[in-house]
Automatic annotation (TrEMBL):
The keyword Oxidoreductase applies. This is Sarcosine oxidase, delta subunit. It holds the Pfam family SoxD. InterPro entries: SoxD, SoxD_sf. Its EC number is 1.5.3.1. Gene3D superfamilies: Folate-binding superfamily. GO terms for biological process: tetrahydrofolate metabolic process. GO terms for molecular function: sarcosine oxidase activity. Keywords: Oxidoreductase, Plasmid.
């Protein structure tokens, strides 16, 4: 089980959280003509890396806030926690 460091509550067990998937997936603009291909890619295509991935997490059974973190998908090591809307930090070397 993961020990997830909530930026508001401190480290808590994974069962208190829900993963919201990959972070920084930009919604396509519909200011011009609607583009089905761009919207389908927004909905269904993810990078699914083997290594460090930025993810959104919701502390559902705690402070009920959302935040981002960097997690290694192989080792599950969490290397950074940062607020929603903040840019992705560079992973530690
Ligand atoms: Zn929390």
């Amino acid at each position: 089980m993961l020990l997830i460091p909530c930026p508001h509550c401190g480290p808590r067990e994974e069962r208190e959280f829900r993963c919201g998937g990959e972070s920084h997936v930009a919604r396509p603009s519909f200011a011009e003509a609607p583009n089905d291909e761009a919207f389908a890619e927004y909905l269904y295509v993810r990078t699914n890396p083997r290594g460090v991935q930025a993810e959104r997490w919701h502390h559902l059974y705690g402070c009920r806030r959302w935040f981002n973190l960097l997690r290694n998908t192989v080792t599950h090591e969490i290397t950074a926690v940062y607020p929603m809307g903040a840019p992705r930090p560079e992973p530690a070397p």
